[in-house]
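Researcher: Sequence recovery benchmark, item below. Answer with residues only.
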């Protein structure tokens, strides 16, 4: 127990020292090149913040979010293959992939219907 407390205190002191050194060595300027450039999301920081943002940026962000969720759900499926019954694993994987494909087709057909109108 004493060793655990000692390691925790040492880790806390080391983290504080590293943050102190980083704040001392960091270059702080009022006119920073990154602060004067437009934000990555498409807003111009010198104009009004009430302007509507780009729909293209929003759609790209949603696509990346969907792919991140899919990857976080697909990776454990591959890692539990050795620990489960092959038939239940196969059934669960196929149902999950079928749901993903149905969602993809639904979105594709919705987009095709919107473009045709």
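Model:
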């Amino acid at each position: 127990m004493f060793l655990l407390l000692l390691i925790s205190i040492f880790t806390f002191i080391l983290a504080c020292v590293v943050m102190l050194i980083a704040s001392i060595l960091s270059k702080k300027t009022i006119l920073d090149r990154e602060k004067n450039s437009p934000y990555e999301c498409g807003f111009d920081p010198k104009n009004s913040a009430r302007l509507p943002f780009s729909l293209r940026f929003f759609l790209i962000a949603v696509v990346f979010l969907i792919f991140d969720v899919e990857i976080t759900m697909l990776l454990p499926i591959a890692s539990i293959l050795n620990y489960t019954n092959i038939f239940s694993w196969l059934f669960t994987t196929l149902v999950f992939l079928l749901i993903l494909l149905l969602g993809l087709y639904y979105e594709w057909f919705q987009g095709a219907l919107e473009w045709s109108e």
